[in-house]
Design goal:
The chain is of the alpha/beta class. 22% of the residues lie in helices and 25% in strands. The chain has a single domain, classed as 3-Layer(aba) Sandwich (Rossmann fold), CATH 3.40.50.880. It has 8 helices and 17 strands. The protein has a 9-stranded mixed beta sheet. A 4-stranded mixed beta sheet has the order 8-9-12-15, with helices on one face. Helix 2 links the parallel strand 2 and strand 3. The radius of gyration is 18 Å and the shape is globular. The protein starts with 13 loop residues before the first strand and ends in a 23-residue tail after the last strand. 48% of the residues are buried. Keywords: Hydrolase, Protease, Serine protease. Exopeptidase that catalyzes the hydrolytic cleavage of multi-L-arginyl-poly-L-aspartic acid (cyanophycin; a water-insoluble reserve polymer) into aspartate-arginine dipeptides.
Length: 293
């Protein structure tokens, strides 16, 4: 039988993270995932599939162990043959929290897509298990995934390429390392392809917690840029050739920081009841860069 999951969610929360996460200092995002997964009773599975490193994901074993979870296990699903192993699916079925590492989102979906492990992740989330993903692990959560693209502030035709993601949500399209890698243009272009999608641009060391009521809340030291295309009155994206700039009218943009929320159904910003004071402790340590596209 599957393990009990934390109370309070019909569908488990999603916690996409923009990469370069703080693992040693304040650890706001990891502490929130620890709480969602059951605190000291949590059984967390780390999936390192996106990583190209042979020891990718092992740093999370130490970090979650220090937080005091009941158990944390690295699931070495690096090839499709591993993703078809019934034992791997059973390990996910027993988890109260699933964490997907950074790396290359195309590798993640190419290995997991259409396998029992991918099904096990979706089923776990549907019955209440929270799923977190950093960087590539964040991008792959949505049904419509940004596979790769070019940086820039102005949307151009061809600067973003889609691929099918894991399908944990179909309401948003996610981009990561957002401010650091100047990805506003490609997120606006992605939304203009189909303005039903809400674009969420995740800064480094910043997460967008999405609950079962489709309420998104920002956690961390950066910001989440929300691109809402529902009010677009004109876009010529379908008339352009590769490299040409897009003309777009009526797109709405919000930049939200720690404690701010956004209703993905009503497409409305919700300010904090009490404005949070988020001070950044000085540190000489720099988060390691994630190598995904």
């Amino acid at each position: 039988m599957p393990s009990p999951v934390p109370d309070g969610h019909v569908r488990g929360a999603l916690l996409p993270i923009g990469g370069a996460m703080d693992l040693q200092r304040r650890r706001l995002i990891l502490l929130r995932f620890f709480e969602l997964a059951g605190g000291s009773n949590a059984r967390i599975v780390v999936i390192p599939t996106a990583s190209e490193l042979p020891d990718g994901g092992r740093e999370y074993l130490e970090v979650f162990g220090k937080l005091g979870v009941a158990s944390v296990e690295l699931l070495p699903v690096r090839e499709r043959i591993n993703a078809n192993d019934p034992q791997a699916s059973e390990i996910i079925a027993q988890a109260t929290g699933i964490f997907m590492t950074g790396g290359n989102q195309l590798k993640l979906t190419a290995v997991l897509g259409g396998t029992p492990v991918a099904t096990a992740i979706r089923r776990a989330n549907a019955r209440g298990v929270p799923v977190a993903g950093t960087s590539a692990g964040a991008s792959a959560m949505s049904a419509h995934m940004i596979a790769y693209g070019a940086k820039g502030l102005v949307p151009r035709y061809g600067m973003v390429q889609f691929g099918p993601g894991l399908g944990l949500t179909n309401r948003v399209v996610l981009d990561q390392h957002f401010g650091a890698r100047h990805r506003l243009g490609r997120l606006i272009a992605a939304v203009s392809f189909n303005p039903y999608l809400i674009g969420l641009g995740l800064d480094e060391n910043t997460a967008a917690e999405i609950d079962d009521d489709h309420l998104m809340q920002v956690i961390g030291e950066g910001s989440v840029t929300v691109v809402d295309g529902a009010g677009i009155t004109y876009s010529n994206i379908h008339q352009l050739k590769v490299g040409q700039k897009e003309a777009i009218v009526g797109v709405k943009l919000h930049v939200l920081t720690h404690g701010w929320s956004y209703d993905l159904i009503k497409r409305e910003v919700i300010p904090p009841v009490v404005m949070p004071a988020l001070s950044v402790a000085p540190s000489l340590e720099q988060p390691a860069a994630d190598p995904e596209i």
